[in-house]
Design a protein that fits this description.
Blueprint lengths: L5 E8 L3 H12 L4 E5 L5 H5 L15 E2 L2 E2 L11 H14 L4 E3 L3 E6 L6 E5 L2 E10 L6 E2 L13 E4 L13 E5 L3 H12 L4 E4 L3 E3 L3 E2 L2 E2 H7 L12 H4 L3 E3 L11 H6 L3 E3 L2 E5 L2 E4 L3 H25 L26 E3 L5 E6 L3 E2 L28 E3 L19 H15 L9
Parallel strand pairs: 1-2, 1-8, 2-5, 8-23, 10-21, 11-12, 11-21, 12-17, 13-16
Antiparallel strand pairs: 3-4, 6-7, 7-8, 9-22, 14-15, 18-19, 19-20
Helix pairs in contact: 1-9
The structure holds flavin-adenine dinucleotide (FAD).
Length: 425
């Protein structure tokens, strides 16, 4: 780069809803900042969702600070392209100072340690504050066993799955039964594909219950407000809530999926070439899923009783899910060739990737060390991570990230007076 290095008070990395929310609060406080986004505004909603994807919560929940989604039917579920349009409109509405197509390759301290140096594909910038809002779902996780699978099997992660036509003809194995795995399995099943679904831990939830959407009762029970320290680690991760907004929104019920022809399997343990070994844990995983449903509906019933609400009784019995005997004993071995499986969709989750951050702000597992997004490095903040502060921290719905962003804006303002001179230890 020629000439003087660009100097800014704050750089936000990432132009998803978290980065934009941060920008909203900094603009309100009239603080100088830019957002650097390697792709386009809301890039992950554009390029990492499948064609039939719909927002998993009703339209009335789609909101960012100071801006609500405009729609005809608040109880309907917006298709993915509408979510992109909403985020784009939001960026325009708040006049976000966003630079698209700018990827941050490294973030480190300046030589004198007084500020931070961001190296990008469009030159370098020095800043007093950097908010890292690059998303909670960054790199696809694919089990190592995938390397041992025959070359003729097409493998794709859920973030690269688009539609059934993308896959070679034949049956498909979907590995992972979180919301993504179940939605993709249904998408394939509806297109007439034979689908095998490897089921792991999950939390079955009602789309609607006693006259309201899941999101309504979740908010009433204050689930999104749960603070990270108050929820044991084992209850924060690993048990994906099953929801879908596809086809107008419906209950994601694995037994019903089996009745529609999807072959349910236990979790994928191992493989030798085309021979897969599956755990004998399907019944156990389904039972755990049912337990989550029972806990949730009971909590809603208790809430209704306690508050004397006049709401309809549930017609269908959610508390007595279909008997497990309706599911045939799961296969423990599966030969891909014999089953006619030519493609595998790995709906096996994501991990963070902060390789570009050249600062020792991570623990042994590579997770950022922070409290409410504030790190031990003055001016370095994280935003939009799962459980950053509350259960809701990473979600778009109901302006969930606003509280965290407002808090970071306060931190930035508090440090603003001396941010240009303060030596950074
Ligand atoms: C399949 C799926 C479905 C989901 N459905 C819902 C839903 O229905 N409702 C809901 O509320 N939440 C949903 N979520 C969660 C939601 O998508 C994420 O929590 C949300 O996108 C996080 O927003 P963010 O702004 O923190 O991150 P992201 O949306 O991931 O934005 C981060 C941005 O940073 C950019 N970036 C990354 N690295 C760099 C770099 N080095 N330099 C410059 N830019 C960079 C990326 O391009 C990206 O645009 C879903 C998640 C997944 C995976």
């Amino acid at each position: 780069m020629t000439g003087k290095m660009e100097q800014l008070e704050t750089v936000i990395i990432g132009g998803g809803h978290a980065g934009l929310t941060m920008s909203y609060f900094l603009s309100q406080a009239k603080r100088e900042h830019v957002i650097l986004e390697r792709g386009q505004v809301g890039e992950r909603w554009r390029s990492e969702r499948w064609d039939s994807f719909c927002f998993q919560f009703p339209n009335w929940t789609i909101e960012l600070p100071g801006y609500k989604y405009q729609c005809d039917d608040p109880e309907a579920f917006a298709p993915g392209r509408e979510v992109v349009r909403f985020i784009e409109e939001y960026a325009t509405h708040i006049k976000a100072p966003i630079r698209c197509g700018v990827e941050v390759a490294s973030l480190e301290r300046t030589e004198d340690s007084s500020r931070y140096l961001l190296t990008t594909n469009n030159g370098a910038i020095e800043a007093a504050n950097v908010v890292i809002a690059t998303g909670p779902y960054q790199l696809p996780v694919i089990p190592a066993m995938s390397a041992q699978l025959p070359n003729n099997i097409l493998q794709v992660h859920s973030n690269a799955y688009r539609n059934p036509a993308q896959l070679p003809p034949g049956a498909v194995l979907v590995v992972g039964s979180g919301a993504s795995g179940c939605q993709i399995a249904d998408d394939l099943n509806q297109s007439g594909r034979k689908v095998y679904l490897s089921v792991g831990r999950h939390s079955r939830m009602p789309r609607r219950y006693r006259g309201q959407d899941f999101a309504y009762w979740g908010a009433a029970l204050k689930r999104p407000e749960q603070i990270v320290d108050t929820v044991p680690l084992n209850l924060r991760d690993g048990s994906e809530v099953l929801l879908t907004g596809a086809n107008g929104g419906y209950d994601v019920d694995l037994r019903a999926m089996a009745a529609r022809g999807i072959v349910l399997l236990g979790h994928l343990q191992d493989n030798k070439d085309a021979n897969l070994v599956l755990a004998d844990d399907l019944a156990q995983n389904l039972a755990k899923g049912d337990e989550a449903l029972e806990n949730f509906t009971k909590a809603v019933d208790d809430y209704i009783a306690k508050n004397g609400l006049e709401v309809p009784q549930e017609q269908r019995s959610k508390l007595n899910p279909n008997d497990a005997k309706e599911i045939p004993a799961p296969l423990l071995n599966l030969n891909l060739k014999h089953a006619g499986i030519n493609a595998i969709v790995w709906a096996s989750g994501f991990r963070c990737n902060f390789d570009f951050v050249k600062l020792p702000v991570f623990d042994g597992a590579g997770e950022p060390v922070h409290r409410r997004g504030v790190t031990q490095f003055p001016g370095i903040y994280f935003l939009g991570l799962r459980w950053l502060y509350k259960r809701k921290s990473a979600f778009l719905l109901r302006a969930s990230g606003a509280e965290d962003a407002a808090y970071l804006a306060e931190q930035i303002m508090a440090g603003a007076k001396d941010s240009r001179e303060r030596p950074r230890g």
